[in-house]
Write a structure and sequence with these properties.
Rossmann fold, alpha/beta, 2 domains
């Protein structure tokens, strides 16, 4: 095939279905990743295989079932990532014709990174731009996505040239897209929220303290720039972390506890957004809209507004297109 350039969008992953064995396969791959859980396999794997994976697939399957795209029989994350890919492909086709091929893959589950990278190479792509859709860098997200790419390359006799997209937590177009979602949400409310909660996915605190992971700093950087773009005061915007797993201390404050504290402190109306997620998924549609909302209302909160992720919004796709074109500089 003639030479082409590949652009690969990458997201976390999704189970193939909500049944026990589909969930178990997905969770086993996810929780066996040493970037995600770095305990010694000698200690962790017996606990994972004998206890966690005997119970968690059922509860996780129920959570996914509540948000599952029944029409397409897939998770919302898969649906949205495909929409983002199709939107980007249309834009790049208008700019470069057939010279650029756009596809997507998942770090865990399907479509897998090895499958799609190999398909892209067979389609003639001797240069590939690998784009992890994580605004803030963490070893457990961007790092492991890139690891999987490099594992694929290690098995190829003829390797394509590759570039990986750096974190974009402070990109002006990303900040403006986030600000637009807040402005639109607030415009549709009868009363202005007392606080805006920016809820990021959590991470064990020792990853920051002992490993120097920049994730926490970059999350704070995103919130600070968003606050400035909106013209909000420091008291109006709160940074929190969700999805804690296991007994050890994670980045704080925990979202589920902080929204309850806000309600008890008299902030009866809040809006919650998830800037670390490029697409709505189980952590936003189920965890935020159910568990975290319930915590707020149980503590006396009255009005809870969830602001959706950027998904395939035009301003989000403008940002992705701009970053891709910049990173392709010299190749096209």
């Amino acid at each position: 095939p003639r030479r082409r350039i590949g652009v690969m969008l990458v997201n976390l992953g999704t189970p193939d279905a909500t049944d026990y064995w589909s969930m178990r396969r997905y969770l086993n791959e996810f929780l066996s990743d040493r970037r995600v859980i770095d305990y010694s396999p000698l200690l962790w794997q017996p606990l994972l295989q004998l206890i966690i994976l005997s119970k968690r697939p059922k509860s996780s399957g129920e959570a996914y079932a509540g948000i599952w795209n029944q029409e397409k029989n897939e998770s919302p994350l898969l649906t949205t990532t495909r929409e983002q890919t199709e939107a980007l492909a249309e834009r790049l086709s208008a700019a470069f014709g057939q010279e650029v091929l756009v596809d997507f893959c998942m770090r865990y589950g399907n479509p897998s990174t090895p499958e799609r990278i190999e398909a892209m190479q067979k389609a003639g792509c001797d240069r590939i731009l690998f784009f992890p859709l994580y605004p803030q860098y963490a070893g457990a997200t961007t790092g492991t996505a890139n690891d999987q790419l490099f594992r694929v390359l290690m098995k190829l006799d003829w390797q394509p040239a590759v570039r990986t997209v750096p974190p974009y937590y402070d990109h002006p177009m990303y900040i403006e897209a986030l600000a637009n979602t807040v402005r639109e949400a607030y415009a549709g409310l009868s009363h202005r929220p007392d606080a805006l909660v920016t809820s990021y996915h959590g991470l064990p605190k020792r990853y920051l303290v002992k490993k120097g992971d920049p994730y926490h700093c970059q999350c704070q950087g995103t919130t600070r720039r968003l606050r400035d773009a909106l013209g909000f005061s420091e008291e109006e915007v709160v940074t929190t972390f969700q999805s804690r797993f296991g007994p050890e201390e994670w980045l704080q404050p925990y979202t589920v506890e902080e929204v309850a504290r806000l309600a008890k402190a008299g902030k009866k109306r809040i809006a919650v957004m998830a800037p670390a997620f490029s697409a709505d998924c189980v952590e936003t549609l189920e965890e935020i809209n159910e568990e975290i909302k319930e915590s707020f209302e149980h503590a006396g909160g009255e009005e809870f507004t969830y602001i959706p992720c950027l998904n395939s919004r035009p301003d989000h796709m403008d940002m992705i297109e701009t970053i891709v074109k910049s990173e392709l500089s010299g190749w096209i």
